[in-house]
């Protein structure tokens, strides 16, 4: 078995455990000591076979995190985009996928659901502190300000004028 075949085998093992972007496979193969040409050959073959596809990976990854499946933190559109970029997905593709998976109306519903659950943790706090902490909690998870404002308005029964963007 030559080095390019070994790189292909290593990449298939990685993809057998979990999905990965082209950039993640490239980084993993570099860490395993494979050279540029060996990595390119493995990536090319994986793409031919349909095992390595950034668009498919990005959509699957974002869909899982948008839905907040078992043990996965639910993210807003900005969080999805940042997570995808962090996994080596091109920013334009990351923006398209995050907007498709989490359009504004879906993001508002998700923010409302997350805020409602999180409010239980803050139940002993005064309303102002609840609002500030919920806003921060949702913002850290990448929800856009408009979705946060609508979710807090419904969750805390406050008007837009009462909400601060901290």
Can you walk through the features of this model?
With 166 residues, the protein is mainly α. It has helices at residues 3-17, 22-31, 36-49, 54-67, 77-86, 91-101, 104-119, 127-140, 145-156. It contains 9 helices and no strands. Helix 1 packs across helix 3 and helix 7 crosses helix 8 (127-140). The N and C termini lie far apart (58 Å). The model is unreliable at 159-166 (pLDDT under 50).
Describe the structure using short key phrases.
single chain; 166 residues; mainly alpha; 70% helix; disordered C terminus
Portion in helices? 55-70%
Nearest-integer average pLDDT: 91
Main beta sheet strand tally, sense and closure: none
Distance between the termini: 58 Å
Total count of helical runs of at least 4 residues? 9
Strand content: under 5%
Question: Secondary-structure map with pairings?
Answer:
Blueprint: H1 3-17, H2 22-31, H3 36-49, H4 54-67, H5 77-86, H6 91-101, H7 104-119, H8 127-140, H9 145-156
Helix pairs in contact: 1-3, 2-3, 4-5, 4-6, 5-6, 7-8, 7-9, 8-9
Short characterization:
With 166 residues, the protein is mainly α. It is 70% helix and 0% strand.
């Amino acid at each position: 078995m030559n080095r390019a075949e070994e790189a292909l085998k290593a990449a298939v093992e990685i993809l057998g455990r979990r999905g990965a972007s082209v950039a993640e496979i490239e980084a993993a193969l570099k860490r395993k000591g494979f050279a540029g040409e060996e990595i390119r050959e493995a990536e090319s073959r994986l793409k031919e076979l349909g095992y390595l596809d950034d668009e498919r990976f990005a959509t699957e990854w974002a869909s899982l995190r948008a839905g907040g499946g078992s043990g996965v933190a639910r993210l807003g559109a900005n969080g999805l985009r940042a997570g995808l970029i962090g996994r080596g997905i091109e920013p334009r593709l990351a923006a398209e996928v995050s907007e498709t998976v989490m359009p504004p109306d879906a993001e508002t519903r998700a923010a409302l659901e997350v805020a409602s659950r999180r409010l239980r943790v803050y139940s002993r706090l005064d309303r102002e502190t609840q609002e500030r902490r919920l806003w921060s909690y949702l913002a850290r998870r990448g929800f856009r300000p408009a979705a946060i404002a609508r979710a807090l308005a419904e969750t805390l029964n406050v008007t837009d004028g009462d909400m601060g963007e901290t």
